[in-house]
Amino acid sequence: xxxxxxLLSACLVLLGLxxxxxxxxxxxxxxLQHVHERGTLRVGVLYGPPWVMGGAPxxxxxxxxxLVREFARRQEARLETQWGSEQExxxxxxxxxxxxxIGGLTTESPWHSEVGFTAPYxxxxxxxxxxxxxxxxxxxxxxxxxxxxxxxxxxxxRRHGAExxxxxxxxxxxxxxxxxxxxxxxxxxxxxxxxxxxxHHVMAIPRGENALLMELERFLAEFVESHDMDRLxxxxxxx
Length: 239
Prior knowledge:
Shape: elongated
Number of helices: 8
Mean pLDDT: 90
Low-confidence stretches: 1-22
Largest sheet: 5 strands, mixed
Number of strands: 12
CATH architecture of the largest domain: 3-Layer(aba) Sandwich
Strand content: 25-35%
CATH superfamily of the largest domain: Periplasmic binding protein-like II
């Protein structure tokens, strides 16, 4: 006899609890809400081609420059870029004076304990590759591998037993090369399974800002899904 009353009481209690709950996801610092209220997305910019390059005066070019322009447009906000040193930009982010930072950041960033990061939106490998039609090596031992002047891959290749030669540009090589996957595809080479490095690219936001994080990650996932990222990075690097 009392079951309907008990059920009604339980429903009223549940409704009361739900009414008192804050919406999820939430931003303790209200970063996403402030973007909408200001009509401005404040982005800290660290130079790092091809991810971030110089654009128009004060603007950010490069792959991530394009990404944040389109993200700002989706939020119906004006993009405000602030260039500076890594220390300056991350200090500003920690104090909520910026909404996010771009600059070719990866999951290996030393700032992980102080700010938040998106999930990796692009994973790039550095591998040994050969021209189309040539035999693909399965071992670097004794293999002659070409790298461009200024490359940091020399020691890594030597640890794999490769003989290393340098050229001004990878396009001038006469054999196997060690390069990033977007360079390999752009040059028309075929990658081997000999992976030297792997980088997971992210963007930085204030720690704990979950609404902003989810909105940004959703945008990045949709962008990557609809674009050939290796081709985009290659074309951007040639500009």
